[in-house]
What we know:
By secondary structure, chain A is of the alpha/beta class. Chain A has ten helices and twelve strands.
Amino acid sequence: MKRRDFLKTSIGGGLAAGAxxxxxGFGKLWSSAPPVAKYDMVAVMGGNPDAMFDLGxxxxxxxxxxxxxxxxxxxxxNIGWDVIPDLGANTNPLLVKRIIEHCFKxxxxxVYVFDHTCDNWVNCYSNSGIEKFAKSAGAKVVxxxxxxxxxxxxxxxxxxxxxxxxxxxxxETDVFINVPVLKDxxxxxxxxxxxxxxxxxxxxxxxxxxxLNQCIADYxxxxxxxxxxxxxxxxxxxxxxxxxVSKEDVVPMKSQILTTDWVAGDAAAAKMLxxxxxxxxxxxxxxKMGLGNMNLDTLNIKRIKM
Amino acid sequence: MSSSVLRRIRIVFSTLVFIFxxxxxxxxxSLIPAKYINTLMxxxxxxxxxxxxxxxxxxxxxxxVILLLTLLTGRTYCSFLCxxxxxxxxxxxxxxxxxxxxxxxxxxxxxxxxxxxxxxVTLIVTxxxxxxxxxxxxxxxxxxxxxxxxxxxxxxxxxxxxxxxxGKFDVYTLSNVxxxxxxxxxxxxxxxxxxxxxxxxxxxxxxxCNMICPVGTFLGLISKISxxxxxxxxxxxxxxxxCAMRCKSSCIDFLKLDIDVTRCVSCFNCIHTCQDKAISxxxxxxxxxxxxxxxxxxxVIIGSLILLFGLSRVSNGQNKTAPKPKKESTxxxxxxxxxxxxxxxxxxDYNKNCIACSLCIxxxxxxxxxPAYKQYGIAGIMQPVMDYHKSFCTYxxxxxxxxxxxxxxxxxxxxxxxxxxxxxxxxIKDNCIVKTEKTACGACSEACPTKACHMIPYEGNLxxxxxxxxxxxxxxxxxxxxxxxxxxxxFVDGNTVHVAAKKPxxxxxxxxxxxxxxx
Lengths: 306, 519
């Protein structure tokens, strides 16, 4: 099963890469070689976001496994909402900061952070704390509020989503690190790794009106995939997601999941949230499309409690 | 005082005022705090009168200061504080550069009948009917609209150009700001005034202020008993006429050594230009003056304004690049009432007090405030209205309520604003993607800050929106996010009177902090 999945992915990726090169060669497609990590997934529980990341990334062989010297890195947290960090609507700023520090330690030339926010972007960037924390670690916090920052890309093989406009920095960077926060979602039941991509594209209204679940899975076909997914499960919004109303929506889970397989990451996240994986439609769709493995028992998972 | 110091003070002071005004209105990033803006607005005559009328407190009594100033020194307001007046002086200078003739004024007779008719009609309309005419003619509002409608987009475009260049060098201190235009028709009035005021000031100095502006005419009346005035020293004067040529108001009759105080804006150019030092600014000597009855010729100027109301083409506010769903929605939204900004209290109160100066449109970080074209009726043209096709009202924001110079928008504390219901969401199931396409969506409920709009079970695994109206505040985020087209599946119908929304209740989740990994 895994081999077949791998072949499907490679063929899909190869086709996409070929098509993209033909389109004008955005990005450096071959520079990010598939990472060779010790585990498929590392799950950490019981510490602060930064300490859990330190431990988790160490188990995966250090940030050097994913980021080479001189590379440009894109870190994509969720900064969608104009709320304070404690409400869990955005990725924990401390975690974002720690990841940036690890990237620079591994020799990254430049680290960028952005999100196409739902609320007013200036307020989101500042009230989430992410702008301040990311800048203090030396990253560039980049606007994503205007269509002029986005470029059209093709997604060959997409069933509902064959093209999208993605932020130019996704195309210009060498390594993409996906840093979603785990949350309840009113419509898809959960937002995490795959759904975090909606903050990379401009025209997400199209997704909403053209089979949201299929579009979420389709986008994962696009060749620029994350080298690493870091799922923030520190403060988890378990209801009224993805925005939340008040602190009653939040359960402190003090956990973190690091994985190279974002479908597996979403499957594990669903379990954290207590929702059956099948209920979150885009996960089985993505699994069937060969974009990852939602069967956690077939994976090599390292679990750590601090 | 007869030196040219007065003129220099006037130029420096008015330049600073003008620069501050321009900055306030092109400040697309809202960097200037509300308190500074409020200080600036305190001394604007018409806004201050309206605010005082609404609040009956001396804290809004800036106009009293202006009245006192006028009683003392004549129409100094027009030269020192009125942004439109200062702007005209600037334009007159440019006019002089283009053609020397434009800056040689000479004495002209006043348009007495025309200006008093305009003042009287404005007063009557304002007292009997409402602010609608003063909205058109208040000089501060006219200037403010020039800035919002014409200058700000240019500044944003320059910003975007620079941001683009900096972005190429990997610098992101400037960010691209999407320029969103207004409905075309609302440009017609500011454009007409821009041409009128621009042309008059370019070639005829302060003719607009002395022929049309009701504030100018009103302050001119008070100036008739002002204490300090421009005076001639008859023995020193050689009747050279230089002062009359330099008088922007064309109000110096040098042969009779007479200055028309109702038109003099205390610019002190005459003092500066007089080679015989025969003109000074000082306490008036009350002497009898023989007045001639003026036979003013009327000129048709306002007629052109009325023509503009005939324009009907209105641009569509919808984002043109927005992707469309496959099936078009079929049920038209039944909008019974426009949505007026928070702090407005009620549509009626708001319409009564707003002079459409567009300051709130400028400070709104989300650009949800748009000039109305027909939402409030023809009289409410250009008054700001919430346009949820353009944007939505940010939950954590009270900016527009903090800076309204006429108190058409009352200041609201953030906690109060979050519970102020300016409209209610209405869900149209037959337009909803979940029903028409049978796929998941939930864009509206995702956006809802109070979860008035939430999802309930539908067919199979699908969920569909439902609205709890009493906790909805009418922010419009749901309507903005809804991808249904051409008609939205959820829209906000305005409240004629704003009411308090219920606070959203929330209970602690039953899910416990895990001690083991569930996988």
